């Protein structure tokens, strides 16, 4: 099984970060076929684009959905960008239209806040924007001028990824974010500061961005202690780790 097939399978079988309550949705109950080994992806190599491509394929290859439109760009009357609608699907079971927003995110818990490895990204901010802006774009006049529907489509939010805690700095894990219950089973990653590196006690193997979700099955050369950057890595037994600078999250770092 190649990495594209593994990622597709991961999307199909992995529960979201939040428990399923509207608008959150899961795809693990959608009938799908395995991704063909001949499938290629030649689009933007960033993880979010690859993820959206595979989500779209999973949904539209199922017997439940028909793709109506994707990446609908919206501009206001002055030509300024409002945003983009990820997917408009027709649910063939009930003949209703659905607006799907999909995202894959990785967050590290620090003092009660879930931060992205680049700490400018925070779960409560991302979730608020998806709920109050991105999902609401299909209600806007600019949307209905491009795609005429008899009513606003139902809102669907697919948010997958992984949540990380620092095993060397104990703190209570929040059970919810913005009133929505997190799935505790998605708190499976570890993170630590560079100064805590020696406490890990086993070799780590670096992950490229496309491997962040699925990990690696090739353990060639373990990484050295990183400096001046964050690193996402994995042990041979499959434990995911983020290593961040000691100044994180006060000075948001970037991947190099």
From TrEMBL:
Protein name: DUF1853 family protein
Originating organism: Vibrio alfacsensis
Top-rank taxon: Bacteria
């Amino acid at each position: 099984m190649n990495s594209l097939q593994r990622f597709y399978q991961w999307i199909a079988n992995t529960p979201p970060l939040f428990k399923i309550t509207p608008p959150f949705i899961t795809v693990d109950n959608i009938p799908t076929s395995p991704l063909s080994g001949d499938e290629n992806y030649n689009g933007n190599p960033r993880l979010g684009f690859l993820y959206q491509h595979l989500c779209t394929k999973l949904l539209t290859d199922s017997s439940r959905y028909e793709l109506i439109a994707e990446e609908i760009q919206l501009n206001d009357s002055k030509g300024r960008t409002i945003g983009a609608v990820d997917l408009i699907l027709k649910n063939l079971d009930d003949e209703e239209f659905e607006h799907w927003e999909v995202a894959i995110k990785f967050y590290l818990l620090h003092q009660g806040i879930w931060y992205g490895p680049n700490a400018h990204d925070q779960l409560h901010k991302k979730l608020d924007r998806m709920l109050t802006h991105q999902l609401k774009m299909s209600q806007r006049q600019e949307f209905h001028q491009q795609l005429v529907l008899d009513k606003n489509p139902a809102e669907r939010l697919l948010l997958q990824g992984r949540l990380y805690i620092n095993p060397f700095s104990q703190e209570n894990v929040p059970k919810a974010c913005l009133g929505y219950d997190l799935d505790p089973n998605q708190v499976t990653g570890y993170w630590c500061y560079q100064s805590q590196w020696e406490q890990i006690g086993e070799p780590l193997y670096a992950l490229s961005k496309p491997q962040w979700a699925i990990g690696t099955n090739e353990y060639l050369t373990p990484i050295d202690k990183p400096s001046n950057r964050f690193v996402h890595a994995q042990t041979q037994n499959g434990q995911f780790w983020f290593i961040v600078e000691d100044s994180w999250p006060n000075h948001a770092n970037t991947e190099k």
